[in-house]
Amino acid sequence: HELAPNVPFEDIGWLLLNGDLPTPEQSESLRARLAAEHALPDRVLEALRLFPADAAPNDVLRTGVSMLGAFDPDLNDHSHAANLEKSLRLVARVSTLVTSGWRIARGAAPVTPDGRMTHSARFLYCLTGRQPENWQAHAMDVVFALYAEHDFNASTFAARVTASTMADIYAAITSALGTLKGPLHGGANEQAMAMLRQIPDPDAGEVWIKERLARKEKVMGFGHRVYKSGDSRVPVMRALARDLGRRTGHEMWAEVCERLEEVMRREKGLIANVDLYAAPVLQMLGIPWQLNTPVFACSRVAGWCAHVIEQHDHNRLI
Ligand code: COA
């Protein structure tokens, strides 16, 4: 609650990888470093052109990360220093794989960003080709902050198991991406958007959800393995959904989500998780719903890398 609305993603990344928030100079140097590492090797960019246009962006990303490993000169050096270097490359390039992969699949050329942009602004610019407004870049920072790290969830566990064999960090992140795809984990934010697109207003939402529960079907964006009385990320994401709703004239999304929350709590005692409100937030930022899970990865890669470093530094086979 202290960090997400206030701290840029670069600083969150630094905190995760180094254990403390950066000084302003360190923050500036990390920003420059991520900008410098942003470009993909030419042959990885060429490989993105080989995918069928309708390939799932998450699959393209997973293959892209695996391929990037082969181009990293420090691939098999698992020292703390080398892993930190590789983490910076990964944080920078996972975003590029997502934005360039998306543009290439739609017949558009990847764009080259201005080196002074923040990581979040660069993500939006490289996706849309347009300079984002400050409030859009800020909202992206908040989303990235909320997704950056979340303890021992499924994808992080997969990354740590792979790292614990002393496989390299790219192998570990590839494992994490495989796990992230499923709708019970990262894929939930895509499914939540598919649900919201069918619901025009709060009353329709109440009907929709009751029908779904009567058929004993799961409702994406609800429930959590750990949080049982409330997902600590939801208040910040909910406030962001309301704010973006006011700015973009789409207040209805947050109102629908709030009604869904009410009904699920009443009918099933289930709480909303962060993916419920992330879905309209990303929509209002102009991010295609097919990228909801890859957006999660663009941020969580920082947390995964921090876990892999910890695993390699104090390894015991899991
Ligand atoms: N919609 C409807 N019912 C749900 C539900 C949901 N999203 N999540 C859990 N339930 C129900 C289960 O069917 C079960 O009901 P039952 O007791 O009548 O059989 C009960 O709530 C307990 O669920 P359980 O499967 O034990 O919870 P879990 O801790 O194993 O599951 C999740 C956690 C996240 C896998 C689960 O809540 C889920 O699938 N959520 C939807 C996917 C999602 O949003 N994932 C993102 C998580 S951040």
Overview of the molecule:
The chain has 318 residues and is mainly alpha-helical. Helices cover 64% and strands 0% of the residues. The chain contains 15 helices and no strands. It has helices spanning 9-18, 24-36, 42-48, 57-70, 80-105, 119-128, 134-147, 154-163, 169-180, 188-197, 202-214, 234-248, 251-268, 274-284, 292-313. Helix 6 (119-128) packs across helix 7, helix 8 runs antiparallel to helix 9 and helix 9 crosses helix 15 (292-313). The chain starts with 8 loop residues before the first helix and ends in a 5-residue tail after the last helix. The mean pLDDT is 96. It binds coenzyme A. Coenzyme A is lined by residues 184, 188, 218-225, 268, 270, 273, 275.
Rounded mean pLDDT is 96
Q: How does the overall form come out from the CA principal axes?
A: globular
Run of helices and strands: HHHHHHHHHHHHHHH
Quick one: how many beta strands?
0
Euclidean distance between termini CA atoms = 32 Å
Low-confidence stretches are none
Q: How many helices does DSSP assign?
A: 15
Q: From the helix content, strand content and strand pairing, which structural class follows? A: mainly alpha
Proportion in β-strands: under 5%
Described by strand count, sense and barrel closure, the largest sheet is: none
Could you tell me the radius of gyration in angstroms? 19 Å
Question: Helix share of residues?
Answer: 55-70%
Ligand set: coenzyme A
